[in-house]
Specification:
four-stranded mixed sheet, 24 strands, globular, binds uridine-diphosphate-N-acetylglucosamine, binds phosphoenolpyruvate, transferase, MurA_subfamily, RNA3'P_cycl/enolpyr_Trfase_a/b, cell division, EC 2.5.1.7
């Protein structure tokens, strides 16, 4: 296991280029299963989760190349396997996204219950209900979800209790090969949903309404492999935007879409930063201590839960106090415990947290408990006095492509080093 040694005090300045989104690329890789032949995905981040998904696809009989190069080629056989094993699936929530495409392609799929970061209970009821409405039987046996539709799936109206990203994606990927029309109501509207709909359409699917709450899918007989470029990672872009703000820096974020980060960038402006659009991204300049900003997480286009820890750090060093409300994942505040070690002033009450800005954070050993908690702790380390040792960096590796070198290039000090073994 490695850890990061972050030395605080530097002002981040310069340019950073963002790659494609983890939360899109993983689903695009699963969507490749829908067509026999070679699909090529560009701008795929070189992250741990992509390696896990590549291995999962290999176990299903695909030939996967290039996962450490940014361009991934996936050659899908005529009859892929249909069993996604526990040893891979348990480490990554997104592995559940093979459920829909394999059910559509094979008529049967066995997927172990997925794991992932400890940010709350993460149900699958909407995934299952949607597939059942499309005509599948789904059973839970010995830790595996077993879905069957030997006669194929049939299009139908499906409404979701909550605009779940994963459930929308699974139902969508199952419906593209179903007979007839499926309408998903209260669908998720994230840019990553639009990205997968764009890819599926390029493959020959008939989809209307991507990016709205109602997605209509007219099933087709078959899909073809294509070349597709992954949408830029709005959460990584947002992480660098906050890094610029908390370090009183001047960072230009390239290959980013400011329109996907509207509320977060607006909050930074309210906090005192200057945020301007550039040719292929945006620039954040901060010349004062950040002002505090309230944050309420909601499904897109609301404020992203995946940006909540970064804004907790901004508020922790602000010149005021703010309330953070977490509506998506009940355990995401576990991260705040680690910020307390650095001297932050935070009080939580259920899904609310009051963060009072302090004059200084003080470097300390801390533990990353999920991917964004890890990013938040790195940001906190960049502004804390002295050294912050961030353990659990495999969580950060799940979603950040080359974070250490990117921060170093901006003038920050983050070193990766082996974590000494603890006897306890
Ligand atoms: C790999 C990936 O893309 N991860 C993202 C995805 O996760 P993910 O797709 O898992 O998130 P969902 O939108 O499905 O989950 C949102 C909420 O709905 C609940 N729920 C979901 C499905 C279900 O069947 N039953 C149920 O109760 C979850 O427990 C959670 O409380 O969207 C989240 C919300 O934007 C992001 O934070 C994650 O980074
Ligand atoms: C929660 C996240 O990811 P996952 O759903 O893959 O755990 C995230 O990207 O912040």
């Amino acid at each position: 296991m490695d850890r990061f040694r972050v030395t605080g005090g530097a002002r981040l300045a310069g340019e950073v280029r963002i790659t494609g989104a983890k939360n899109s690329a993983l689903k695009l890789m699963a969507a490749a299963l829908l067509a026999e032949g070679e699909t090529t995905l560009e701008e795929v981040p070189r992250i741990l989760d992509v390696q896990i998904m590549s291995e999962l696809l290999r176990r299903l009989g695909c030939v996967v190349e290039g996962e450490t190069s940014g361009t991934v080629r996936i050659d899908v056989p005529a009859s892929p396997g249909y069993e996604a094993d526990y040893d891979l699936v348990r480490s990554m929530r997104a592995s559940i996204c093979v459920l829909g495409p394999l059910l559509a392609r094979c008529g049967e799929v066995h997927v172990a219950f997925p794991g992932g970061d400890a940010i709350g209970s993460r149900g699958l009821d909407m995934h299952i209900d949607g597939l059942v409405k499309l005509g599948a039987t789904v059973e839970n046996e010995h830790g595996y979800l077993i879905a069957k539709a030997p006669k194929g799936l049939v299009g139908t109206p499906v409404w979701l209790d909550f605009p779940s990203v994963g459930a929308t994606e699974n139902i969508l990927m199952a419906a593209v090969l179903a007979k007839g029309t499926t309408v998903i109501d209260n669908a998720a509207r994230e840019p990553e949903i639009v990205d997968i709909c764009t890819m599926l359409t390029e493959m020959g699917a008939k989809i209307e309404g991507a990016g709205s709450s109602t997605i209509e899918i007219h099933g087709v007989e078959g899909l073809s492999p294509i070349v597709h470029r992954t949408v830029p990672d709005r959460i990584v872009a947002g992480t660098f935007a906050v890094a610029a703000a908390v370090t009183h820096g001047d960072v230009t974020v390239r290959n980013a879409r400011p329109e996907h980060l509207e509320i977060a960038l607006d909050k930074l402006t309210v906090s005192g930063a200057s945020v301007t659009s550039t040719d292929d991204g945006f620039r954040v300049v901060m010349d004062r201590r950040p002002g505090a900003v309230d944050v309420v997480t909601l499904p897109y286009p609301g404020f992203a839960t995946d940006m909540q820890p970064q804004f907790a750090v901004l508020n922790a060093v602000s010149d005021g106090h703010a309330m953070i409300t977490e509506n998506i994942f009940e355990a995401r505040f576990v991260f705040l415990q680690e910020l307390l070690r650095l001297g932050a002033s935070i009080r939580t009450d259920g899904h609310h947290a009051i963060v009072r800005g302090v004059d200084r954070l003080s470097g300390a050993p801390v533990l990353a408990t999920d991917v964004r908690a890890g990013a938040g702790l790195v940001l906190a380390g960049l502004v804390a006095d002295g050294e912050t040792l961030v353990s659990g960096v495999h969580h950060i590796d799940r979603g950040y492509d080359d974070l250490v070198n990117q921060i170093t290039a901006l003038g920050g000090s983050v070193l990766r080093e082996p974590e000494p073994e603890s006897r306890f």
